[in-house]
Amino acid sequence: MNRPAEEGGLAAAPDPETFACQACGACCAYSAEWPRFSTEDDADIARIPAAYVDDPAGRMRCEGDRCSALSGRVGEAVSCRVYAVRPEVCRTCEPGDPECLIARRHHGLPV
């Protein structure tokens, strides 16, 4: 049996039902400071519709702490309006990773 990573063992793979991104969205509604553009060049950012880009801040536009490209209800059913051209930080976010768990806890979702 694998012990949890925090006990020095191997972490089990996240449960696909618990960490289904399209039933969560917590990471996209956690902070207006994220997602920031980090590795994108101007051409990458230009592919994202301007209505979703906060150029002066170098990030996606947010409505409160929620990315404006997120549609649906966090913890129920969500989707990304710019999924095909989303920023690199969004592409690297993985279900069950530390950032995912922080965002899920913030929204009171199971971890």
From TrEMBL:
Domain of life of the organism in this record? Bacteria
Q: Which InterPro entries match?
A: Puta_zinc/iron-chelating_dom
Q: What is this protein called?
A: Fe-S oxidoreductase
